[in-house]
Automatic annotation (TrEMBL):
Annotated positions binding heme b: 196
Residues binding Ca(2+) 2: 197, 244, 247, 251
InterPro entries cross-referenced by the UniProt entry: Haem_peroxidase, Haem_peroxidase_sf, Peroxidase_pln, Peroxidases_AS, Peroxidases_heam-ligand_BS, Secretory_peroxidase
Family to which this protein belongs: Belongs to the peroxidase family. Classical plant (class III) peroxidase subfamily. Belongs to the peroxidase family. Ascorbate peroxidase subfamily.
Location in the cell: Secreted
Named cofactor requirement(s): Ca(2+); heme b
Protein name per its UniProtKB record: Peroxidase
Organism: Physcomitrium patens (Spreading-leaved earth moss)
Role according to the record: Removal of H(2)O(2), oxidation of toxic reductants, biosynthesis and degradation of lignin, suberization, auxin catabolism, response to environmental stresses such as wounding, pathogen attack and oxidative stress.
Top-level enzyme category: oxidoreductase
Keyword line: Calcium, Disulfide bond, Glycoprotein, Heme, Hydrogen peroxide, Iron, Metal-binding, Oxidoreductase, Peroxidase, Secreted, Signal
Gene this chain is encoded by: LOC112279707
Catalytic activity: 2 a phenolic donor + H2O2 = 2 a phenolic radical donor + 2 H2O
Record's cofactor remark: Binds 2 calcium ions per subunit. Binds 1 heme b (iron(II)-protoporphyrin IX) group per subunit.
Amino acid sequence: MGKWSSKALATIFVTLAIAMNSITPAVAHSGLKVGFYHHSCPEVETIVYNSMVQSYKANHTVAPGVLRMAFHDCFVRGCDASVLLEGPNTERTALFNRGLHGFEAVDAAKRAVESACPGIVSAADILQFAARDSVVLAGGYGWRVPAGRRDGKVSLAEEATQMNLPAPNATVSQLIRMFGAKGLSASEMVVLSGAHTIGRAPCVTFDDRVQTSPVDPTLAPNFAASLKRQCPYPGIGSTSVNMDSTTRRFDSQYYKDIIRGRGLLTSDQGLLYDSRTKRDVHANKGSAFYRNFAQAMVAMSRIEVLTGRSGEIRRQVGEVNKY
Ligand code: HEM
């Protein structure tokens, strides 16, 4: 074997493998890169942040609105801004997306970016920056958003269904399967569910837990009574309820509430009663949640992205380019 012993070759091979592994997550994994606009639009993240600050000041509900929008974008055709496209039979018109809001905040951010760097930054990246900023404005940790996504040209209502998006009464097995299909682990699913630390949900999404006799036994009795009071007209109306007891603050209260039988949706409360997810509920009830959430959002933001020459850089948030 000449001057290379098999032991030396094995050492080189292992060293190379480790080196390659530590490079792949940042780039080859999805083709995305932190600082992607460093030369082409260096101020983009500041512009988006400043715009989000204005939108949040005017209406704090844009934070949960935009965070949920990023989730619904990534789970249908990947993080390609397909959820933002307007028109008949687009994702936006689907039942699961009727409650989405905060579009005007993403629109404002995109307009601000376009006036500084026309035709450079995708709506898909702006949505991910804005989701991160929403978390920061509500009190969570920020994270470095890998960028370089391109915008999709297709948006179909029929794909924004239970086929891709979880229903409020989903079982843990269904949740694990759905998140698994997007490359996310059960732990990441539990952490991402913690997004319900901010925002509100309409009564129809948990009627089946409280408007029955007996009520869902996993609900703390006084919490069930309070939900019944807040939702006097089952099945109708637009009344909404806070998703955790500190709903304007991004914190780990969501998990503390679940542990006390005060999880709002079946999908939330169920996490405590399944051996595959219970440990993660407890693991996130303290400060570890903030970092775990940031990491899981990065993982989610890589789902089925378009990069390179695929897709386009949309000029307007809600429209495919016309030329
Ligand atoms: C685990 C499965 C999940 C289910 C079953 C679920 C379901 C729901 C439902 C039914 C609502 C009420 C919204 C409405 O109908 O208007 C809601 C709200 C919300 N969801 Fe989820 N969700 C899940 C995961 C996530 C994830 C992964 C995120 C983000 C990372 C997220 C972010 C939000 C936010 C921020 C709200 C509040 C929205 C607002 O106040 O407008 N959810 N979710």
